[in-house]
Amino acid sequence: MSKARAVTSKKRRRASPRDLMKLEIAAELGLLPKVQRVGWAGLTAQEAGVIGGIMSQRLRQKK
Questions:
Q1: How much is the pTM?
Q2: Cα–Cα–Cα angle for 50, 52, 57, nearest 5°?
């Protein structure tokens, strides 16, 4: 007898301004197709770090 795994679905939520900025930066770096194909978890630490660094710079500039 096999155990049935509970199917969980990710709830769709509205994209925050930070989410939109992250998508914009990923597109500028040419990473958007990879994100769409495998998701954010599929990025390497270096790729995610570059996105985070650029986000930090832009948020500091806005203040």
A1: 0.77
A2: 95
Question: DSSP labels for 20-58?
Answer: HHHHHHHHHTT-HHHHHHH-GGGS-HHHHHHHHHHHHHH
Is residue 35 within 8 A of residue 42, CB to CB? The reply is yes
What confidence tens digit (pLDDT) does each residue in 8-56 have? Answer: 556 778 989 999 999 999 999 999 999 999 999 999 999 999 999 999 9
8: which DSSP letter?
Answer: -
Residue 49, token pair as written in the block: 């770090």
Structure tokens at 45: 């630490």
Domain spans of the chain?
17-62
